[in-house]
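This entry is set out below.
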Amino acid sequence: MDIMMEDKPAGGFKRSPAGPSRQSQASSARSRPDVKSVADETAVDVEMDNPDGMKRLVGVTNNYQHMPEPDRDGTSPVDRTTCSTIMDTLSVASTAAHHNRQIYINAPQHTNFCSNQISTAKYNFLTFLPKFLFEQFRKYANIFFLFIACMQQIPNVSPTGRYTTAIPLLLILAVSALKEIVEDIKRHRADGALNSRRILVHRDGRWLEIQWREVVVGDIVKVNDGAHFPADLILLSSSEPQAMCYIETSNLDGETNLKLRQGIPATSEVVSGDGLTDLRGIVECEEPNRHLYDFVGNIRLASKKSMPLSPDQILLRGACLKNTSWIYGLVIYTGHQSKLMLNSTTTPLKRSNVEKLTNSQIVLLFLVLLILSLSCSVLKNSHTHWYLFYEGASKTLDLERSNFGYNLLTFVILYNNLIPISLQVTLEMVKFGQAIFINWDLDMYYAKTNTYANARTSNLNEELGQIKFIFSDKTGTLTQNIMRFSACSIAGIKYGEETSEDMSRFSDETVVANLKNGHETAPVISQFLRLLAVCHTVVPQRDAATGDIQYLASSPDEAALVKASSFMEHVFHTRTPDYVIVDVMGEPLKFQILNVLEFTSKRKRMSVIVKTPEDKIILFCKGADNVIYERLGSNKIYTEETMAHLEHFASIGLRTLCLAMAELNPAEYYDWAETFYKASTSLNQREQKLEEAAELIEKDFVLLGATAIEDRLQDGVPETIDKLAKADIKIWVLTGDKQETAINIGYSCKLLNESMDLLVINEESLDSTRDALVRHKSDFGEQLGKENYVGMIIDGQCLKYALMHDCRQDFLDIALSCKAVICCRVSPLQKAELVELVKVSQKAITLAIGDGANDVGMIQAAHVGVGISGEEGMQACCASDYSIAQFRFLQKLLLVHGAWSYSRICKLILYSFYKNICLYVIQFWFTVTNGYSGQNLFERWSLSLYNVIFTASPPVAIGLFDRYCSAKVMMNNPVLYKDSQGGHRFNMWVFWVWIINAIYHSIILFWMTVGILNTDVAFSDGKTGDYLFLGNFVYTYVVVTVTIKAGLETIAWTWLQHLSLWGSIFCWFFFLSVYSQVYSFIGISPEMYGQAGYVFGCSLFWLGLFLIPITTLLRDIVWKALRRDLFKTHRQTVQEMELANKEIKLESTFRKRLKPISERARLLSRNLISLGDRMIGGGRRSTNSSQAPPGVYTPQDIEGVTNGSCELQKRYIQVPSQAPNSPSSAPLEIGVMSTSIQAGVMSASVQARSYNDGFAFSQEEHGVVNQTQFIRAYDTRLEKPEGL
């Protein structure tokens, strides 16, 4: 078993590869229960030297024993047979537990694997027709018209002709199909762009550049810096020492900090194409699954034993290579079998809520139609008028006349247009036009990337106006993924401009000026800048062509700090395993790195012990304010000023760090170094001993100052969130990032604010989660289910239990009782599950917005999915319904386009039903007068063209151009959004009010016309008209009435509205004039010949044209006038103010139902407990005050401090319960002081404050390579291999 190798490859740098880490091997063993007994029986423990003389443990079990040092050749005295037996047993056990995948390196594969081509489109050539027809015939109207079209083919049944329904239905389906094809082509093009990306592949001993779609399992690919991985890969080697590489996984889990991956030692030396050609072996791994953070596999190279693979060697599709020149990777999972795609769901066929409601009303209308048809069929058989000659008719005709089934079908066909056949095609056209308006909106155009808003589907436009919940990603959606060193406090003096627009550098030059001019704080400034330049894990990389230095860092915060020091003339440019070189105002200074005390979320700090050029031993430390203040020495200068600056920085959402130093006595340091060395080589509880050793040296600090880093939000994010909140939209942030980072962004974007109470739930087991939820639920009391001024924070581990069946409802009740919810460290599936939970339980319209592949699940689960075309690729956009370039554009998309579209679509649907009911119920009134014969009152083609020509344009004009307020007014008054959000414009009550009104209009239109013709002579020569004469009278009055009704419903009048209304009336008169003469030319419709002359020549017609429409609409006009005067709505008030050119400002009616904690009480409450433990799930605190660490106060301490001067109130701030094995598992309930706290209490504890806005650290913890080993492996003076 090869343990240690030392040689220098062509690149020249020193490689000291280590085997897989203890943690990764332990996790592999834990993931395979069947291996446990083997590992327990046989223990292999090996110690290996690191370059700095430290000892690093590499093993496969927890039963560690001290082993002899490795031999010179790198082999261990441990019996090689034993090692081989263990590895073979592990392999056999794994094979028994799983059906494994075998991949042959540089050899043909024995299995056909999935293609690497992906598709997020809804259709392909084969599935389009069945999927499209399924989608269309989910609409009940289409099913109904298909039934009518089939029934019309039966001879002697249809009174309206055989094709009057079939042809319009085919037209509707053709238009819908064309729209779906156009929209899906966009998706195919986006997929094609992704599948056509280029990648270098090593095949048959040479490099080939191929498309991603051509990559297959078993290929060895070369990925360069900044490129995305084309498939799931096993890391073989890289340009960095020990096959290390940085990756950014924000596209997968939302985390912005870079993660470190490391290949196994056996392949780390393969740094050229020739080496790849000679590589042979087999990789055995688990079958594809959706677990992003789990992987089990083995690799067996030619003539070598199997070596384990873990997640530390896996590079997932969707992740991006960063700060690494290149890597070689072996493809193991491709296409839809990659973990990223397995976490995506099938593109759903979404339908809007309005469409679903319309479907249900169509069913009810169909029942009305059946009742009418049945009634007419029964009544027809009961009428035997003598003048119809029933007695002398043939038996065949008599059979047809008396056949109930025939009669029923006749009346069903006669009344079928009670359900408007034109509705679907009108909706498709209008929605498509609305989508074009969204695409053309220049207010949602992002010039920086030349990106317009894109409505990828038009089926959900009206849903945008009813959004109640927004689920948002954080990274890349709310933020720009850019860290800016914004300000700092040095020796009690604040420098920098927090709101500077210059993103490239720290803008305040006063720092350097004070240092050069010998300001009284110059010594502190010098140490401050030295700390920034030395205390970090950043690696500099100089561009050979330009000489510019690029800083490679896993933490974007650290990179920002080092860049800031270089702007202030402290340029870090060289790192070796033993020292760093910093150019201080032109003079290179060497700092010897003695020790690195690593950052963890529990320690909340990082320290570096260096020997300075002055031969002094200095400890530099940076960390959270509370941990630094706890460790200050007797010299507490600048503490008050620095804390004030920290509070100011945090209040505007900046990420803060405190900086301190301590000069060490050499003798004391070397004594401590021996203690630290023993702790670092301990075989039991090493991590705990290292922390205890660090505590011994990290003390008696001298405070230097503080830094403030801005995790730059996208422009307009706080304003957008504020306006959406005023529109009564609840916003939940679902992110894979760390909790303190998410909370920090919550304050920055104004989702959380200083007066809002925070409810933090961090539990580690199902039982503790259940107990915490029940406890918090009872705390809300009567306010449960109401919106309270509380922000809820929960992490992914706890959320996993909270979403289980027995906890789900309690979690939902609490979340819905909070004004804001932030879920941290959540997986893509958890995001989708949360969206689905709220969508199903609340029956509310949801919207999900994100920019990464990890957001695809929730985008597809929500009613409406919005993709941000940002820095994390286009996969979220490809899966979305709408895409925008910036989060702020969501404001106009919802408040303007959404509200307009909802109002327009509702009017369009209601009006379409109204105009059809108004005309076709007249057929029923005519049936009553003609002995239920089934005779049609109107000419068949005039009837067919009613929806196609004569009343087609008014609903289209309403659907495209009507608006009740201008865009500016709606943007400035988000309260108006509530009118559409509640769905009040279209529901069952509104629908049937319109239907009843249409029936009322049909009664007046028909019976008044009949009355006019019955009470007077139509022509002076005594002639009377036939049924078509009456029909053309009524038809004209209906067209005029329904057109004017459209005008009554129109609010915003433009020339297009005028054209649509008056043009519709003109079209009918023109058609009647021409159509009544066509018989003499082409021989069709003889019954209409000369009808125009008779109708237009009748004075009663013109009298009725004036009286009947006015009489019909009189009730509508009166009701509108009374309602506007007596029951005026927000919309109508705003309309009147807008017409009067008055300033319009409506305020939200939201009131805080819980009195928020005061600013002073909030600050003091943060002193009562270590917020780090509460916020990031660190060490659990005992309720025993004697065991409390410095700076952490217990309830007993509170009573002593307050001395009766304040009243304790129980608030919704809860410390997580202790781990099950801790001394006390009872949760510690925190009392938060009321607003009557005295000023003296505040000042007494000012130095112990712990601010709530997070600290600027985002490094990966417990990675494959620890921070010490990582920086010891680099020598930037040496060249890197090119990997060719």
Remarks:
- The longest helix spans residues 889-929.
- The first strand starts at residue 45 and ends at 49.
- The radius of gyration is 38 Å.
- The chain has 46 helices and 37 strands.
